Amino acid sequence: MQAIRQKDGLFALDPVDERVLNSFAVVWGAGQSLTASQASLIVADVAPRTVQRRVVSLIDKGLLRVESDENDNRIKYFFATDKTNQYFAELSKCLEQAKRK
């Protein structure tokens, strides 16, 4: 994880950001949509308000995209971005390298 954190500042994530993003990825990986109200509840041991602040930070960093529900603008969905996919690809590479050592 340290290697990806230091990768040219590309991702600039701290451990809480990583936990939030990883928790979201579990939902996305299961093929499910993630609403803003669900997001604040799925990250274990992180207060919902902290998750909300981190979501704003991840959006600012280009790692989350928000879209409104087409039938109800009050419902917001979070989606991965190309940068998110790049983050997980780099993480996968780091894990593969660690397994070889």
Biggest β-sheet description: 3 strands, antiparallel
Widest sheet: strand order?
Answer: 1-3-2
CATH topology: Arc Repressor Mutant, subunit A
CATH architecture assignment: Orthogonal Bundle
- The count of DSSP E runs of length 2 or more, i.e. the number of strands, is 3
Query: What's the overall geometry?
Result: globular
For the record, the count of structural domains works out to 1
| Strand content bin | 5-15%
Percent in helix: 55-70%
How confident is the prediction overall: mean pLDDT? Answer: 87
Q: Count the helices. How many?
A: 5
What does this structure look like?
This protein has 101 residues and is mainly alpha-helical. 57% of the residues lie in helices and 10% in strands. It has a single domain (2-92), classed as Winged helix-like DNA-binding domain superfamily/Winged helix DNA-binding domain (Arc Repressor Mutant, subunit A), CATH 1.10.10.10. It has a three-stranded antiparallel β-sheet. β2 (65-68) and β3 form a beta hairpin. α2 packs across α4 (48-60). The relative contact order is 0.17. The mean pLDDT is 87.
Briefly characterize the structure.
Helices cover 57% and strands 10% of the residues. Strands 1-3-2 form a three-stranded antiparallel sheet.
Which key features would you list for this structure?
single chain; 101 residues; mainly alpha; Arc Repressor Mutant, subunit A; 3-stranded antiparallel beta sheet; 5 helices; 57% helix; globular
Give a topology summary:
Layout: H1 2-5, H2 15-29, E1 34-35, H3 36-42, H4 48-60, E2 65-68, E3 76-79, H5 82-100
Antiparallel strand pairs: 1-3, 2-3
